[in-house]
Amino acid sequence: MCYSAQVVADYRKFVRMFGALMDIHEFARLFFERAEGASKAKVPKAMEDAFAEPNTDEERAIKAAIDRFNGAQTTKLEQDLFKQRKRLADAERTLQTKVTKAASESQRIATDKIAWTLGKLDDIQRAELKPRDSRIFPGHYAPVMVLENGQRVVKPMRYQCRIAGKPASYDVKYPGTYNARRDNLEGFWKPCFGYTHGVMLVDVFYENVSKAKFEGTLSETHDRNENVVLEFRPSNGELMHVACLWSRWSASGQPDLLSFAAITDEPPVEVAAAGHDRCIIPIKPENIDAWLNPDSKNLDAMYAILDDRDRPYYEHRLAA
């Protein structure tokens, strides 16, 4: 499973690399619905930053929606910060006269929440991007390239695919639908495979791995659920063009949802040796157009593209 990835979050790189068009309507809808409270979309800071210096009326409208949302978030965080600082002061006054479990716990919680809130405020306000600003998790949005009318187009999509026609409850019932297993492409993913294909650009991906497997020790020496997070990075330093499936979900009285899943397969030797049993599939650049323009009557050609994948060596380390 690719539980997290550092992606190319700036649509402009797709434009430069592939001559793709940006679907301005979908980007505007995403940010407007979030600003209006109609959506709880989680958007990486680097994806917002692409509109920091707008050049058109449409881009200025997107920038205004982003600013409105961030302004509301800042106000809420500042209010929370005031509450936690008061809670901390109250706890510390109590502890000066009598040490109690309740006051000590209140002091600890308030201190942790203050640090977290200050970090979130800093993330909103700082202008310089950091690598983590491009990192996505299930439920987060990322730019995905598709093909429409023969043209490469970049759309913002949620990283957890809700297939058209399925109930919204599938998000909870099937929380792993941010990955599409290759051995299930003609099963659960049949409505998408051969019909709606996409490509996501990934620098680094992260996996939860059993600590016992990673260390090569007996599982009995660890808690059964004890995991570590590993960072996997292609040793050649090149971007991965990750094969994806996507869908547009619609329902009466609800906003449309564009969402996607990354296809995964058996891992290469070095990923398996690190303790993980799945891996995303980076397709070759020369196969991108064929992948984005699938023929549902010739799925063998799609499997051939997945087989003829890029095979970089994945170096790994413990994630920071």
From TrEMBL:
Origin superkingdom: Bacteria
One Gene Ontology biological process: protein-DNA covalent cross-linking repair
InterPro entries: SRAP, SRAP-like
Alphabetized GO MF terms: single-stranded DNA binding
Any Pfam family matching the protein: SRAP
Protein's name in the database: Putative SOS response-associated peptidase YedK
Record lineage: Bacteria, Pseudomonadati, Pseudomonadota, Betaproteobacteria, Burkholderiales
Gene3D superfamilies (alphabetical): SOS response associated peptidase-like (3.90.1680.10)
